[in-house]
Structures are given as C-alpha cells and as structure tokens.
Amino acid sequence: MENPGLFSLDDDKLGKLSLQIDPTFNKTNWWIDMIKCKYTSNEQLKVKLDVRMEKPQNLKMCGWCYARGKNVWKTWKRRYYALVQKLIYVSQYCFATCSYRERKFEPTEMMPLEGYTIDYAEPDNGLIMHDGKYFFKAVREGDVVTFATNEENERHSWVQALYRATGQSHKPTPPITQINKSNSTSGQKDLSDSDRSKNLGFDEYIQSDPCKFDHHDLFKTLQTATLDFRLNDPYCSLGWLSPVQSYVLEEYCSRYGVRGCLRHLYYLNDLLDRAEQGFMIDPQLLHYSYVFCTSHVSGNRPDNNVSTITMEERDGFSEIKERLKQFLENQVTNFRFSFPFGRPEGALKATLSLLERVLSKDISTLISRDDIRNFIRKCLENAAYTNYTRVSDQAKIEAELCIELLQQDSEHYQEAFKQYNDLLIEHEEIFWSLFAVDMEHVIDQQPIESWDSFPLFQLLNDYLRQHDTLSNGRFHQQLRDTFAPLVIRYVDLMESCIAQSIHKGFEKENWKSKTRGCATSEDMLWKLDALQCFIRDLHWPDAIFAEHLEKRLKQMASDMIEACGKRVCRHFENWIKKGGLIGGTSSDYLLPSECCVMVNVILDCKAQALKLCALHSGDLHQYHTRIDEYLEKILSDMSKSLIQKLVSVLDSVFKKLSRYDEGSFFAQILSLTKPINEDGQSYVSCVNANLEQLRQRISDEIFTLNIFEEWYRQQTHFIFIWLGERAEISLHPYQLACLLLILKKTHGSFELQGVQDKDLNSQAYSSIMQRLHFEETANAVK
User: Fold this and answer.
1) How far apart are CA 281 and CA 278, in angstroms?
2) Which of 98, 272, 442, 618 has the fewest beta carbons closer than 10 A?
3) CATH number at residue 553
4) What's the CA gap between 127 and 147, in Å, rounded?
5) How far is CA 495 from CA 491, 549, 613, in A?
C-alpha cells in the first residue's frame, strides 16, 4: 500500500517501527518495513525515511563492540563504545575510549589511550561470539584490552581511529586471509581515479608507503610553514596558532606517530628563531611549550603516565634550554625595547616567570631566590649601561631625557619588577652613576666664572629629593659633593660683586628717585634677594650645609645693608648742609629732593631687612634685630636733621621780626616802610612748599606724619619761647600780624596733612593764641 500524501490526525493507526541510531547514522531515501497493527490489511507496509545525525566534533568513532581488560571492562560483554578527544593543555589533546549504557550520556567506564599500542589480533576461540568474530587489542605495559566486532570493516575502522589517537609509531597491519587474497588478486583499480591522480601529480604520494617517510622531518617542515603563515597574519598572533592549524597538526601527529616531546621541541625552536628575528612572541606560549618539554624530559608528567625520551630529544632540549636562557637574558636586559611601554601587557612579568623556570635544574627542583636575584641583578646592570648608551647617543647629556626615561620605567615596568624592587633601584643608581661621569666631565670643561651648570643641579635635585628611593642615595650625595664647591664659589663672588657695587654706586649716585629708593640701593637689595632666592630654590639636600648657607647669606645681607646705611647717612649730612634752592636757611628754603630719596633708601632697607636678614630656623632675629635697630637710629637722626633745618628757617624769620621789638633802634626806621606781613607770608609759603615736598617725595606716610607732628611741636615751642622772652613788652603791629598769619595758616596746613587735634591745639598753642588775642585787643584800643 502506498500513500504519497500527508497523514492527518484523524487517520487510523497503520503500524509502527523502532530505530536504534547512533551519531554515525546517516541514511536518505531509506525504505523500512513497519510493524502492522491488527486492523491493517495484509498488504506489505513500508515507510520512506531520511535520517541525519550531527556528530559532535570531539567524537572520532563509536559503535558496538565486545571488550575485556585487566583494569577496565573486566567481563567479556557487548557494550557501546565511543572514542572521544578532550583538550587538557593548549595545543595538547587527550584521547579516551568510553563505554555507555542506553539512554545515559555519562560514560560508565573510561580508558585513556595515552601509552597504549593498537594492533590487529588473532581470533580467541574462548571469546568468539556469533556477533563478535573480528579481534583487535590495545597493549600497554601491564595491561591488555581485547576488543571484537561483528564485521571486518568495522574492526578496520576502529583500529585506524585508535591508531591515529594513540600517535604510536607502529602502524597496524591487517592479517592476510583467504578472502583478502582473492579480493586482492581479483580487484582492479578504477581507471578514471588513477588517471586523475596522475594528472594532479599525487599518484606518487598515493601509492607510496607511509612507513618509508621520515614524518618527524615532514612535520617540522609543516609546522614551520604553518607558523610563518600565522605570523604573517595582519592581526598580531604573538605565535599562537589558530584552532584549525592546531587541529591539522594534531591530526598529523596522531596519524603518523609524531612524538609529542619532539613536536614541542620543534615548535619551541621555531618560536625562538622568530623571536630572535624580531617577531613579537608571547612569553606565555614559550612558557607552555617549555613546561611540556621539561615535564616530558624529566619524567614528571602531570598525568603520571610512563613516557619515553630519545637521546636526540634530550640533547635538543638541552640546546634549546641554553638558547632560551640567552634569549630571556637579552629580553630582560633590553626590557625597554623588547616590551615598549610595558606592551604586551603582562609580557615582562611572564618573561621573568619563565626565566625562573629555565634557570631551574628541572621541573621539581626550583632555583634558589639568591641565584635568580643575582641573575636579574646582572641583567639590570647591563640594562642600565644599554639604556644610558642609547640615550647619550641621541642627545648629549640631556638630564630631562634621563629623568623621563626613568619615570617611564617606574610607570610601565615597576609592577613587573615588584619582587625585585631593590634591584630596580640599584639599576637606577647605576644609570645615574654613568650620567655622573659625563656630568663631571662637562662641568670640568666649563670656564671657572661660568654658572650654566646650576639649572642642571636644580633639575636633578628636584627630581631626586621627591623620589622615594633615590633621595639621599649614592648619586644624590655625589651630586651634592660636586656642586657644593661651586655654590660656595658663587656666593663668594656675589658677595664681592655686591660690595663693589655699593662702593662704586654710591660714589657716582645722582640720587634720582626710583621705585622705592635710588638706583644703587635697589640694585643692591635686588641682588641680595635674588641670591637668597637662588640658594633657597636649590633645596640643598644636606641640612647642615643648607643652614650654613642661610646664615651666611643673612649675615651678608645685614653687612651690606649696614654699609649702605653708613654711606647714605654720610651723603645725607652733606646734602642737608648745602641748603635749598637759593641757599642758607631763609624763608625761600626748600628741602632737597635728594635728601628725601636718601630717606626712602633707608626706609626701603628697613622694610627689606626682615625678609633678607631674618632666619627661617633657630634664632630668627639673630641678624635682623641688630640691623633694624641700626636703621631705626639712622632714620631718627635724619628726622632730627630735617626738623632742625626746617625750624632754623623759622628762627631766621623771627630774627627779622626781633628788629621790630619795642625800644629797639631799628623799630622806628623799619616802621617807616609800613610793612604788612611779608615775613609771615614768606614763611607760610616755605612751610607749605616743604610740607608738599615731604609728602610727595618720602614714600612712608607714617614716617612723614611723624616728621610733621614733631616739626609742628617744635615750631609751636619756638614761638612760645620767643613770646616768653617778650612778656614785658608789647608786640609791634607788624610782629603781631606776622605771628597771627603764621599760626593760623600753619595750623590749617598741618591739619590738612593729618596732624591730630591734640597735637595741633596743645597747651603751648593755646597760650600763644591767648597772648596774641590780648596784644590784638591792646593795639585796637590804641
């Protein structure tokens, strides 16, 4: 019965079937008989099926077999077996034969194939079953596992799959039977396939015997070509093969019995060749391959299986180990150039870890910490020389470049050398010691009066004193010892220069007003301040020498300011004696502006003395107190001289007024001229002019106000004494007019300049005004 249409849900049940399929089951257009139901007609019932199973990638072979062994499958029984492949290392696979029960995905028993040899076996009459007649076996020292299949082709498939999985060198040869002989004599090759293989050039390889080839050399060529192709990839592979490449090489090793140790020796040798040619190879990859070879050679494999090693492999491993040691030593020595800016990330740290492995005698005996530290110390010493040589070739003694280089080392490589931090510090000290040789050579070639090297000291000292480990280190001390004589010589020279500028400057000084004083004083104070700032900015590392420099500079400033004060004081006395614009002490007198400039010089020195002479530690005012008292005395003397000069003008005016005293010889004669108040007016003008001169020329308002107050007090006292001497006589009208004008006008002028009321309206002033009002009343009565 045939029904090409689709079944519907309301159709009657025709029959049923049961399939036993496995991952290798694939059939298309397959007609199969169904088991008919009791209501179905007697006609034959078949169904057409398409069955496809997707085999897992790690499944190499599966099927029903009989098996019996010593350690696994101890009873002769039919089981379902699968040959599976698992990844245990990078580029290293493990094959195992597993048995399963129906509807169970976990194996009941498993036998790793590592160390087993697969071969065909003769039939065992005691084990022959009706569905297990074709035998093969897996042999290892101390264990034999016997298998049997129902068909010859199935046995051949199992043997070939297991042969590729074990990677054995012995190739199994099937036993020759009568059926095989007849088939070999009667069989003929397909002519079309033969012709096609000849045309493609593969006929020689197809007909050749694989056992006659040296597969180790062929594998070496294949692996080298594969690695070269991988390294030419536009994306950086760092030596890692792609999964497909690893699978192809793995299959070749399994099929043709390439030894695992020799394979990794070839791979490690190729990686070293490429790394020495300048290719970037991941140290982790070198580490994996080296550990595998080491464990194989030393017999300490992680799976505890028995392995063998040839003399060729052992000698090759020793040679590669020595090459790898030299390569890693070169990598650590040139770490800045092998791993620029710490890239690839973690590569330097992995290199140091691999170096510890390589320096160890074997995988179980690690190298001592002292030995590895000595080796790293030697590498870093050579690295310091290499780095400085390359820097010095690029630029002649560039300190900025050296500092930047070590800062990059600290930023990008300190984490990798974390456990060797003291060795990295020693590496930096060696680097700076090489720099110190060139630095001293350059300094020795400079002229003795040249100070161009001080910026170099400032740059290096600022870097070193802020460094956690190099501060006060060997190079820092050497830098201090090299520049200490230069600093002392520079201070001596500056002291002599400032002293000469004071001597020559004041001799030629024109006493023109500058910002705060005269040209010579400002130049002196600027030099003293600049010298102290320069020495302070050096941040001298030795506290004792730094304190000595500070005391010397403060004492120098005190001595220079004192010398300046003496010279200014001497010039002031000379100028105060010269008189004013016209000369003498007449009412036309005006204080010379030069005298005001000299006062400003002393005021400026006094203002700068605290900064220039006060210490920052110890006795703060050891030098400042003395110079401050000295300058205060000079200012007091100058103030007295100025006031005395101004009061002498009043004295000259009152001498003229004394000629009008009652009963004097000149009183009547002078009265004929009918004067009004000319002398008083001239004195008031003189006072106003000098008040304005002092206010405009002297920079310190407090000092100026003190002069005004003292001047007004002495003026009032002088008038009070003068009137007291004439208490018995009446004042001449001219005298009275001049006095009233002087008192009223000067009172207002001094009040405008800021003199306080208590000083203006003193008791002497009140007595004077009372006397003048009395005289004024008396004259009015007359």
Assistant:
1) 9
2) 618
3) 1.10.357.50
4) 10
5) 6, 13, 15
pLDDT at 127: 80
Cα distance between residue 697 and residue 596, in whole Å? 6
Closest listed residue to residue 722, CA positions, set 779, 781, 767, 665: 767
Tell me the CA distances in angstroms from 430 to 30, 396, 440, 470, 620, one per residue in order. Answer: 83, 18, 16, 11, 42
CA distance readout (Å), 582 to 41, 285, 325, 586, 591: 159, 103, 100, 8, 11
Lowest mean per-residue pLDDT among 31-40, 429-438, 494-503, 749-758:
31-40
Q: Which of 406, 430, 458 is the last residue of a domain?
A: 458
Q: Residue 469 domain-assigned? A: no
Phi, psi angle pair for 644, to nearest 5°: -60, -40
Say if residue 686's pLDDT is above 80.
Answer: yes
414 and 492 inside one domain: no
Residue 467 lies in a domain: no
Residue after which a domain boundary falls, among 582, 598, 633: 633
My answer on whether 156 and 39 are in the same domain is: no
Task: Mark whether 710 and 725 lie in a shared domain.
Answer: yes
433: buried, middle or exposed (CB in 10 Å: 19+, 13-18, 0-12)?
Answer: middle
Q: What is the domain extent for residue 37?
A: 1-55
Residue 71 φ then ψ, to 5°: -100, -30
- 704/606 same-domain check: no
- Work out the angle at residue 551's Cα, subtended by the Cα atoms of residues 547 and 552, and round it to the nearest 5 degrees: 115
Amino acid identity at 494: M
| Structure-token pair, residue 278 | 């300048």
CA 51 – CA 23 distance, rounded (Å)? 11
Q: How far is it, in rounded angstroms, from Cα 538 to Cα 454?
A: 8
Q: Which CATH number goes with the domain that contains 78?
A: 2.30.29.30
Shared domain check, 433 and 582: no
Write out the two tokens for 490: 């520079």
How far is 719 from 707, CA to CA, in rounded Å?
18
Position 770 in a domain: yes
* Residues 602, 692 share a domain: no
Phi, psi (5° rounding) for residue 95? Answer: -105, 145
- Residues 499, 387, single domain; the answer is no
Phi, psi of 605 (to 5 degrees): -60, -40
Query: What burial class does residue 237 get, using C-beta atoms within 10 Å of its C-beta: 0-12 exposed, 13-18 middle, 19+ buried?
Result: buried
Contact between 492 and 514 under an 8 Å Cβ cutoff? The reply is no
Q: What is the pLDDT of residues 308-358, one digit of tens each?
A: 778 888 888 899 999 999 999 999 999 988 888 888 888 888 889 888 888
Contact criterion met (CB below 8 Å) for 297 and 317: yes
pTM tops 0.85, yes or no: no
Residue 297 corresponds to which tokens in the numbers above?
Answer: 């050679």
Which residue in 88, 84, 89 sits closest to 113, CA to CA? 84
Quote the CA–CA distance of 535 and 548 in Å, as a whole number.
11
271: in domain: yes
Domain count, the chain: 5
Using one digit for the tens of pLDDT, what is the confidence trace for 145-193? Answer: 999 998 898 999 999 989 888 878 788 888 876 555 444 444 444 445 5
Token duo for residue 718:
């002088």
Q: Beta-carbon neighbour count of residue 403 at 10 Å?
A: 17
CB 145 within 8 A of CB 69: yes
Shared domain for 27 and 49, answered yes or no, is: yes
Structure tokens belonging to residue 551: 């005391």
Residue 93 is which amino acid? Answer: Y
pLDDT value at position 581?
39
State the angle between helix axes of 399-412 and 369-394 in degrees (0 to 180), rounded to the nearest 10. 140
Give CA–CA dist 424/422, Å, rounded: 5
- The H-or-E segment that residue 80 falls in is strand 77-89
What is the rounded distance in angstroms from the CA atom of residue 284 to the CA atom of residue 657? Answer: 113
